[in-house]
Specification:
The complex is a heterodimer of chains A (259) and B (321). With 259 residues, chain A is of the alpha/beta class. Chain A has 6 helices and 15 strands. In chain A, the strands form 3 sheets. Chain A has a 9-stranded mixed β-sheet with strand order 11-10-9-12-8-1-6-7-13, with helices on both faces. A two-stranded antiparallel sheet of chain A has the order 2-5. In chain A, strands 3-4 form a two-stranded antiparallel ribbon. Chain A is globular and about 65 Å long. Chain A starts with a strand and ends with a helix. Classes of the chains: A alpha/beta (259), B alpha/beta (321).
């Protein structure tokens, strides 16, 4: 069985702070990490590798510095790593990104594609299902458990109020929740071994993809404007009796559609 | 030409989900500006009788697909049904709840229909030409981006539950109900549901809660706080002193030695706001602080600060809600 894990290098958003003077994001010095859900997907792949002898490749799309994320994946136990990088890929929205990644997966071949549920920088959860559609394979999202049983994947699929146990034949794509799998640490042998490995670059010329479908040109959605979070912090405080206080709280929260 | 605003009306076990009604409400507002109709998509098995509810909440037309293949949510049959309807009627926009169903279905559909999709929107606006402006948080809520999809139709969006306002239902409203039959490609039905199990909400993790009723030294009785949290669909958390006093379990502690939380609403009841506590909650979207000490540091980060006895305010809130 061949597994491809799609990972993304993301800024650690919990460390992003707002500059109180300029009201802009302070991104300098924010460390980059493997997106947590993607790391859990890699852990699923590595467990399948241990249990049924799978071959695990990792793929990411991004600038050259994303190689750091791939090297970490190799040091955790992945077999090969591929960096999708090309100026033609820049500016892609989720649909264009999924088109590019799907073209790479077609080239590499996979029985199982694993993704994280969503990335902490974009929070879209869209690229996984979109890759599955381009590959014309079934998807199972929000997976909290993935097992390989009698030639098929058995996946526990979470909803807000229930779960399903699904059985899906390969090839298929599964997106994984980070809460369910604790990723292993890099191990010394693999840290040494990854040093000898190549991270292979995949560029526009290596994949079959219509240039009209990728990059800014191939992205149906455009960012029109951005704004940082407005802090309407209350300076003055109200001194009220309990009854009036409760009423003010309820009215304010209702008005803001928070309750 | 692409026209009208379509709303995927999510149901579970035949019960229309509140996010669907919220979407009908915002769709009605948008459609009024753009001069379009609100078209509800009602998919499921034995759900046709729910169409009148959707009309009451703002739908002008309800397309019903009542089919045993839609009895449980599975991506492919739902995608096929909506794809067929979208190709026939050419919607200008299509809205989904940003739930574990909507966020599975909408991206699959967007790739099949080769159009754009904006995730987890918290604000939607439209112009007279029907161009949709979709605003969503990014970078963990630190940034808001407004996204457009100018050259592809339908303009698709998933919308965060609980943000949009539903209309007051009017069961005298008139709407058209259209029953649709789908030409299934069953060769693609390759995901088998072995079982589906409803779960009672287990102990919620405070870092995942959307609303936290957080208590400190100023709260003596936690039962009232627990009642309030239950009523508001949230959970109880605490500052360190209540944890040290053994009143609250450590996994509910907010702050540097506890958890970092960023719920939509954070109530700080009787919490003075030591820097270690603030570090764990100051990124919350909306903070309500109640404390008897008006110089308490918690008021510096609060969106709504009230100098009053926390225990008494909790009691009044329970009466009011």
């Amino acid at each position: 069985m061949k597994i491809i894990v799609c990972i993304k290098q993301v800024p650690n958003t919990t460390e992003i702070k707002i500059d109180p003077v300029t009201n802009t994001l302070k991104r300098d010095g924010v460390p980059s990490i493997i997106n947590p859900d993607d790391k859990a997907a890699l852990e699923v792949a590595l467990q399948l590798k241990e249990n049924c002898g799978a071959h695990v490749d990792v793929v990411t799309m991004g600038p050259q510095q994303a190689e750091v994320a791939l090297r970490e994946a190799l040091a955790m136990g992945a077999d090969n790593a591929y960096l999708l990088t090309d100026r033609a890929f820049a500016g892609s929205d989720t649909l264009a990104t999924s088109t590019i990644i799907a073209s790479a997966i077609k080239k590499l071949g996979a029985d199982v594609v694993l993704c994280g549920r969503q990335a902490i920088d974009g929070d879209t959860a869209q690229v996984g299902p979109q890759i599955a559609e381009h590959l014309d394979i079934p998807q199972v999202t929000y997976a909290s458990q993935v097992d390989y049983v009698d030639g098929a994947l058995v996946v526990k699929r979470q909803f807000e109020d229930r779960y399903q146990t699904l059985r899906v034949a390969t090839p298929c794509l599964v997106t994984v929740l980070s809460s369910a799998y604790k990723p292993r640490y890099m191990n010394v042998a693999d840290i040494v071994a990854q040093d000898q490995k190549q991270v292979e670059a995949i560029t526009f010329n290596d994949v079959v993809v219509n240039p009209e479908d990728i990059g800014l040109k191939g992205s149906p959605t455009k960012v029109k404007s951005t704004a940082t979070k407005q802090f309407d912090k209350q300076i003055a405080t109200y001194e009220l009796g309990a009854e009036e206080a409760a009423k003010l709280i309820v009215d304010t929260l209702k008005q803001k559609h928070l309750i | 030409m692409a026209k009208n605003i379509f709303v995927f009306c999510e149901q579970r076990d035949g019960e229309i989900q509140s996010v669907a009604l919220e979407l009908l409400g915002v769709a009605k507002q948008l459609a009024t500006v753009s001069g379009e109709q609100v078209c509800a998509l009602l998919l499921g098995s034995n759900v046709a009788d729910k169409a009148s509810q959707l009309v009451a909440y703002g739908a002008d037309v309800v397309y019903v697909v009542d089919d045993v293949n839609l009895a449980q949510f599975v991506t492919e049959p739902y995608t096929q049904a909506i794809t067929q309807i979208a190709r026939e009627y050419q919607p200008n926009a299509m809205l989904f709840g940003a739930t574990s169903i909507g966020r599975d279905l909408a991206p699959r559909l967007s790739a099949r229909l080769k159009t754009g999709l904006t995730a987890d929107c918290t604000q939607l606006e439209i112009d007279q030409d029907g161009n949709l402006f979709m605003t969503r948080p990014a970078f963990g809520g630190n940034l808001f981006a407004t996204i457009v999809c100018p050259e592809h139709k339908p303009q698709m969006s998933t919308v965060r539950p609980g943000v949009m306002k539903m209309m007051e239902p009017d069961y005298n409203r008139q709407g058209e109900v259209v029953s649709k039959t789908i030409a299934w490609d069953k060769s693609k039905f390759v995901v088998e549901v072995v079982e589906e199990v409803k779960e009672v909400q287990t102990v919620e993790k405070i870092e995942e809660a959307k609303l936290l009723v957080s208590c400190g030294r100023g709260v003596k009785d936690l039962t009232e706080a627990q009642n309030l949290a239950t009523k508001l669909g949230g959970t109880v958390s605490a500052s360190r002193c209540l944890v040290d006093a053994g009143m609250v379990d450590h996994n509910r502690q907010v702050g540097q030695t506890g958890k970092t939380v960023r719920p939509q609403v954070y109530f700080a009841f009787g919490i003075s706001g030591a820097i270690q506590h603030l570090a764990g909650m100051e990124e919350s979207e909306y903070i309500v602080a109640v404390n008897t000490d008006k110089s308490a540091p918690i008021f510096k980060v609060a969106n709504l600060g009230i100098v009053a006895d926390a225990q008494a305010v909790i009691k009044q809130l329970n009466k009011l809600i």
